[in-house]
């Protein structure tokens, strides 16, 4: 239905989108039938739907995708995400198995099929949107594939004809010991009935990255149980390609003036959490955000930034990624460029002005967008790192101090750091340890936040000063600072307002 | 030194505009990972090492100043640098193609100006600009869809995209500072160079046997590290996702200074890891236990204990080591098994102990890669054969067939090479190059052989593939 060249709406048919045009009117055309629960979305839909359906279905899917993305930003595990998504999927985008024999199978699958293609149109326009769309659609696909009934999953994968060459018996024998090492906990020696595929390693980069395949001369030997992963990789690859084709066809879509506003609206509602963090919303009015006050402000910093601050004070130096992470954070709390340069100059007190100017000044200015390419300057430099970015990109190497202490420190060092910043409560420390062990780094950070601000949080809740939305899980270091600062300085404002009340 | 200005003037390139579009992460990376500048971290260790005491300012005098002296650089680029081979290496054919013409070069001048997006239609024009600007070093970036110099004229900015680059690896001895005892920071000696030898062996064999890459060149970085350039045609075209996959496959030692245990690998060991262990185990015995002696001091041996799984065993080990201070690492390592066998701990899990010991071998020997260099198609890396301005040593290729013999401290310096030309007494053959009169010759010869083999495979891969397919059918 939604290919650009057969996308015109017949002006005489109000409220109905008829996209049947010659290309799809060929013998291949038929009302889509959906033999499988899952869909590789290889064929665009062709039947008519109303504008209302068009919009509602897209919004429902978007809700699901946004929620999935939020799960990943909050670093939820696969199981947690599945549990979190289950009721939402049932409500907005249900997809029953064949064996359920539900009477709604076709309707559900049609909605899944159409909504996917509508969002393709909404998110094909920029590279950034395409990348994010591919990412979350892949998450959705993987979630559903994992939760498919094995028999139906296998039938679906078989139907894809993915052209995977089985490794011959003889070949398998010649590398038996290597393959056995990959069979994991299965008993070595006993020739399990596992079959192996042999593909160019480039086709399964994620399996290579995780050392989940045996590699020999550029070929990857993939155990059959990794088929799911291969299907997911294939899904991503095809979707990326399809989106680029859609992007090229997009300009012609503008002719349809009824779809454009809907699509625009959809893509605007899919804002990045990173981008949504802007400096105007992060500023704290009345605070003394200056180079000489950073030491004082640092008590309101999240642990990652406190750690960088402490190391900077100890060593009078920070390695590059740490410097970048900290500079952008300081920028985010409202430290202006001049003050930031003063701050770094004073902090690097073991080097000469000359060295500082030559080796560091430029990079600080660059971070603020004071120098650099047009696009960088226009955007005011780089955004402060979100927790997601700190947790997943550039993990610290030997000798580096950036990253998230909850993730990148071991338990002993993390505990020592927490104690050093004044968190000595055994219950909190134990909780942090458990969070860390179950990889819930956000939980750990928020747990510490709640402990440190226990009194203030109770007060704002009791007095209704902050809504629960204003107190939801923190997923950005700058949000941590802002909330911490506001809570710790509540007293002053509140006394004032109480005074006003009394006078009134 | 009034040079004729036939090339774009330097004012065009030194102003801030030329620096634009540099990724911020890359810029920050350039400061610390740049082996030209000693780390700025204040020293807490005793300052026994001489070179790290040197001021970090580039204006310093002495032998270091000499290597970046304009006259020295001019002579070097004019008489010693193997321009023709460098051209063929990047061009993959005898006559200029876009592989060369659309390739980015980045120049670092003595003023510290960093000029990006330079490109050159021919080898001669590259040489001319280098001789005019006399950079202290230059780097090689990717081949772009269009000429990098024209990138601003592109209507559609996304039309200017990196297309191809060698897959690169960067290993630096500073990443071993927590386990090497002989030197730290910018200093190296033949003892700690063995970390590089181990690293090269492990990575090289994985790239060849596992991924099937063929044209791999290792280059000494001039001071304390090595770079690898994987030049196969198919490799050069890989996107970032594939580069990330290889980087992840090869990365084993993870975690920062506070991360605790740095090796956490699944069992059974992946074939790449068991092969690596086979390669590394003998080095662990000699280069680590006897030479580095990493656990001689008490706080160091506590680190060893922190990597072992059984607290009962640890208690007996600690008691034994306390009673004989200064016990050598090799003995301490042997104590682990000896006490385990003697039943020092009742709860001992022999399998867990064996695995912990394997992890320790890996933590102390497995290559520590600066993995960001390998993940990005558009990362720049210092060209082979430039002079390291700090040491004066030429960044020469390392012949992996004679890997164990490579001595970084015996690599010729630019000053030495220039005096060798002067001292040369042989017969001047027709068309003889100056580098042939010096100890740079074996390195250039090696490079030439490498480039010829690469060009041969490049010439007509289609014919070759057809032949391969034939042989598979019959
Ligand atoms: Zn050494």
TrEMBL record, chain A:
Gene Ontology CC terms, in alphabetical order: alpha DNA polymerase:primase complex; nuclear envelope
The keyword DNA-binding is annotated on this UniProt entry: yes
CC cofactor: [4Fe-4S] cluster
Record: residues binding [4Fe-4S] cluster: 304, 387, 404, 445
A single GO molecular function term of this UniProt record: metal ion binding
Ranges where the DNA primase large subunit C-terminal domain occurs: 299-481
Keywords (A to Z) from UniProt: 4Fe-4S, DNA replication, DNA-binding, Iron, Iron-sulfur, Metal-binding, Primosome
Record GO biological process: DNA replication initiation; DNA replication, synthesis of primer; double-strand break repair
Cofactor remark from the record: Binds 1 [4Fe-4S] cluster.
Free-text function comment from the UniProt entry: DNA primase is the polymerase that synthesizes small RNA primers for the Okazaki fragments made during discontinuous DNA replication.
Family to which the UniProt record says this protein belongs: Belongs to the eukaryotic-type primase large subunit family.
Name of the protein in its database record: DNA primase large subunit
Species of the source: Pseudomassariella vexata
Phylogenetic lineage: Eukaryota, Fungi, Dikarya, Ascomycota, Pezizomycotina
TrEMBL record, chain B:
Low complexity bias spans: 44-58
BP GO terms, sorted: DNA replication, synthesis of primer
Family from the record: Belongs to the eukaryotic-type primase small subunit family.
Enzyme class: transferase
SUPFAM superfamilies, per the entry: Prim-pol domain
E.C. number(s) listed in UniProt: 2.7.7.-
A molecular function (GO) term: metal ion binding
Keyword annotations from UniProtKB, A to Z: DNA replication, DNA-directed RNA polymerase, Metal-binding, Nucleotidyltransferase, Primosome, Transcription, Transferase
GO cellular component term, pick one: alpha DNA polymerase:primase complex
Species this protein is from: Pseudomassariella vexata
Protein name: DNA primase
Segments for region (Disordered): 30-66
Pfam families associated with the record: DNA_primase_S
InterPro entries tied to this protein: DNA_primase_S (IPR002755), DNA_primase_ssu_euk/arc (IPR014052)
């Amino acid at each position: 239905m939604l290919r650009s060249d057969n996308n015109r709406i017949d002006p005489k048919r109000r409220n109905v989108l008829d996209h049947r045009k010659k290309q799809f009117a060929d013998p291949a055309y038929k009302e889509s039938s959906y033999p499988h629960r899952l869909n590789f979305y290889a064929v665009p839909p062709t039947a008519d739907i109303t504008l209302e359906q068009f919009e509602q279905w897209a919004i429902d899917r978007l809700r699901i995708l946004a929620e999935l993305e939020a799960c990943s930003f909050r670093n939820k595990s696969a199981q947690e995400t599945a549990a979190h998504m289950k009721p939402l999927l049932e409500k907005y985008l249900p997809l029953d198995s064949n064996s359920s024999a539900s009477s709604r199978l076709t309707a559900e699958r049609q909605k899944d099929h159409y909504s996917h293609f509508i969002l393709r149109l909404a998110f094909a326009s920029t590279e950034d949107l395409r990348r994010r769309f591919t990412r979350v659609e892949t998450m959705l696909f993987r979630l559903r594939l994992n939760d498919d009934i094995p028999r139906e999953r296998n039938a679906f994968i078989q139907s894809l004809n993915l052209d995977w060459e089985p490794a011959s018996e003889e070949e398998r024998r010649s590398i038996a010991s290597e393959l056995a090492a990959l069979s994991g906990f299965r008993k070595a020696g006993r020739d399990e009935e596992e079959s192996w595929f042999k593909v160019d390693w480039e086709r399964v980069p994620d399996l290579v990255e995780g050392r989940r395949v045996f590699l020999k001369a550029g070929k990857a030997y993939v155990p059959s149980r990794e088929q799911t992963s291969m299907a997911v990789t294939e899904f991503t690859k095809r979707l990326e390609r399809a989106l680029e084709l859609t992007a090229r066809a997009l300009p012609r879509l503008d002719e349809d003036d009824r779809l454009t506003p809907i699509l625009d609206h959809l893509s605007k509602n899919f804002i990045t959490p990173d981008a949504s963090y802007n400096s105007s919303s992060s500023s704290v009015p009345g605070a003394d955000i200056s180079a000489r006050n950073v030491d004082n402000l640092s008590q309101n910093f999240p642990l990652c930034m406190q750690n960088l601050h402490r190391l900077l004070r100890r060593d009078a130096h920070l390695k590059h990624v740490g410097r970048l992470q900290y500079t952008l954070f300081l920028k985010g709390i409202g430290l202006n460029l001049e003050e930031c340069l003063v701050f770094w100059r004073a902090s690097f007190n073991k080097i000469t002005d000359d060295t500082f100017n030559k080796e560091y000044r430029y990079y600080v200015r660059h971070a603020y967008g004071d120098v650099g390419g047009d696009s960088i300057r226009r955007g005011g430099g780089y955004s402060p790192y979100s927790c997601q970015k700190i947790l997943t990109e550039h993990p610290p190497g030997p000798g580096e101090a950036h990253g998230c202490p909850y993730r990148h420190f071991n338990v002993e060092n993390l505990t020592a750091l927490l104690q050093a910043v004044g968190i000595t409560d055994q219950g909190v420390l134990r909780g942090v340890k458990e969070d860390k062990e179950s990889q819930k780094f956000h939980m750990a950070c928020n747990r510490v936040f709640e402990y440190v601000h226990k009194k203030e949080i109770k007060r704002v809740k009791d007095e209704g000063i902050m809504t629960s939305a204003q107190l939801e899980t923190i997923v950005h270091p700058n949000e941590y600072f802002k909330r911490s600062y506001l809570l710790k300085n509540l007293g002053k404002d509140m006394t004032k307002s109480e005074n006003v009340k009394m006078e009134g | 030194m009034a040079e004729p200005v036939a090339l774009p003037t330097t004012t065009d390139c030194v102003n801030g505009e030329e620096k634009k579009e540099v990724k911020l992460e890359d810029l920050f990376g350039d400061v610390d990972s740049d082996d030209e500048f000693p780390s700025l971290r204040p020293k807490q260790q005793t300052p026994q090492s001489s070179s790290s005491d040197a001021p970090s300012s580039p204006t310093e005098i002495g032998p270091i100043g000499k290597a970046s002296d304009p006259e020295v650089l001019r002579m070097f680029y004019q008489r010693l640098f193997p321009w023709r081979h460098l051209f063929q290496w990047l061009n993959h054919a005898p006559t200029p193609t876009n592989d060369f013409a659309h390739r980015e070069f980045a120049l670092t001048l003595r003023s510290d100006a960093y000029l990006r997006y330079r490109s050159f239609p021919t080898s001669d024009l590259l040489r001319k600009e280098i001789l005019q600007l006399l950079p202290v070093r230059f780097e090689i970036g990717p081949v772009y869809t269009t000429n990098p110099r024209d990138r601003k004229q592109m209507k559609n900015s996304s039309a200017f995209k990196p297309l191809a680059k060698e897959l690169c690896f960067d290993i630096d001895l500073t990443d071993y500072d927590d386990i090497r005892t002989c030197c730290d920071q910018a200093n190296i000696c033949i003892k700690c160079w063995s970390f590089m030898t181990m690293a090269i062996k492990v990575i090289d064999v994985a790239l060849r046997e596992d991924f099937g890459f063929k044209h791999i060149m290792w280059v000494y970085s001039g001071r304390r590290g090595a770079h690898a350039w994987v030049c196969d045609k198919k490799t050069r075209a890989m996107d970032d996702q594939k580069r990330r996959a290889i980087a992840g496959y090869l990365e084993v030692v993870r975690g920062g200074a506070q991360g605790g245990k740095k090796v956490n690998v699944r069992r059974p060991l992946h074939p790449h890891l068991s092969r690596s262990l086979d390669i590394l185990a003998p080095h662990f015995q000699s280069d680590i236990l006897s030479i580095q002696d990493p656990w001689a001091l008490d706080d160091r041996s506590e680190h060893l204990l922190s990597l072992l799984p059984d607290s009962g065993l640890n208690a007996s080990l600690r008691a034994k080591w306390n009673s004989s201070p200064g016990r050598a690492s090799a003995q301490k390592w042997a104590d682990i098994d000896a006490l385990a066998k003697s039943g020092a701990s009742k709860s001992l899990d022999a399998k867990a102990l064996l695995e912990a010991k394997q992890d320790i071998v890996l933590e102390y020997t497995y290559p520590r890669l600066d993995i960001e260099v390998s993940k990005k198609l558009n990362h720049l890396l210092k060209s082979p054969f430039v002079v390291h301005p700090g040491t004066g040593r030429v960044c020469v290729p390392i012949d992996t067939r004679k890997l164990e013999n490579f001595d970084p401290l015996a690599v010729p310096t630019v000053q030495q090479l220039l005096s060798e030309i002067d001292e040369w007494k042989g017969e001047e053959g027709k068309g003889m190059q100056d580098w042939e009169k010096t100890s740079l010759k074996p390195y250039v010869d090696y490079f030439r052989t490498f480039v010829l083999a690469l060009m041969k495979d490049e010439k007509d891969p289609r014919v070759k593939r057809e032949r391969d397919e034939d042989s598979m059918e019959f």
